[in-house]
Design brief:
Elements: H1 23-37, H2 46-58, H3 65-73, H4 89-111, H5 130-135, H6 139-144, H7 155-167, H8 178-194, H9 217-240
Helix pairs in contact: 1-4, 2-7, 2-9, 7-8, 8-9
């Protein structure tokens, strides 16, 4: 028996989330991931997990937790009451609770009809402005970080999303419908664009109006396009449904061919009779 985690987008969009994660709870997730990183080198940052989760929510096929959990955190899904790769069972249970609540929140945000991304009910990716945070540090602290490769706004989220796409490429294969194929390609390209570095002049302070500019206007536009793309992908796969596997029947030998059983008789006189 394994821990229950969400594996589909079945949350009721009409329900009001009882416990949308608070900033303190997002910090708590970061703390758990930091602790996991002391024992497992490949543990990603939460922003990467956030993008990965969004891709799973809108994926064409519901992917079971037992399948996606080892891909994301490089360890098996712990059984109820067990620690698995976590520090202890309590930490494992808390991570599962926070993950599930965030999953339900993402599902609801993507299921609600909105007119703009400023709608309080819309899906808002939990992303960081690392460059802005560093730019706001005291001069001595900034100098200590000089030369470090800092991710652009939304870049780690987009990398997490595309990691899920690349892990299950068959679930993101283009439909035969030409318009749907264009729709899929445009949506994925919007997210891929966000995996690139923001090299334009920074003119916007995203989270602090009085802070130093750290994000370009083009980056803000690209980020908005990427979030709308997630909505488009959800709608696309809802319209097409899960992939249907093609069943291929092996060709039978001709009636006058030797029978496949090796009897030496013609097929029509043996298994084809």
């Amino acid at each position: 028996m394994t821990t229950t985690l969400p594996n589909d987008a079945s949350a009721d969009a009409s329900e009001t989330p009882e416990h949308t994660l608070s900033p303190q709870e997002f910090d708590e997730i970061d703390t758990i991931l930091d602790d996991l990183r002391t024992r497992h080198d490949e543990i990603p940052q939460w922003e990467f997990c956030e993008g990965f989760m969004a891709a799973l929510v809108v994926c064409r096929r519901p992917i079971a937790p037992q399948e996606y959990f080892p891909v994301l955190l490089d360890m098996e899904l712990p059984a109820p009451g067990e620690a698995g790769g976590f520090a202890d069972a309590a930490q494992a249970a808390r991570f599962m609770e926070l993950w599930t609540r965030r999953w339900d929140d993402v599902v609801r945000g993507l299921a609600v009809e909105i007119k703009g991304l400023d709608d309080e009910n819309a899906y808002h990716p939990e992303v960081m402005d690392v460059r802005g945070a560093v730019a706001g540090l005291p001069e001595a602290d900034r100098a200590a970080m000089e030369g470090e490769d800092l991710p652009s706004f939304g870049q780690v989220w987009a990398l997490g999303f595309m990691f899920a796409v690349e892990t299950w490429p068959e679930e993101w294969a283009a439909p035969r419908d030409k318009e749907a194929e264009k729709w899929l390609d445009a949506a994925l390209q919007s997210i891929v664009a966000l995996t690139e570095d923001d090299t334009d002049e920074p003119t916007i302070a995203v989270f602090d109006d009085n802070g130093p500019p750290s994000v370009s206007q083009q980056r803000i536009n690209d980020f908005s396009d990427a979030v709308w793309a997630v909505y488009d992908l959800r709608e696309l796969w809802r319209n097409f449904g899960p992939r249907v596997e093609t069943v291929r029947k092996e060709a039978e030998p001709g009636r006058n061919d030797p029978c496949h059983c090796g009897s030496g008789k013609k097929f029509k006189k043996c298994h084809g009779a």
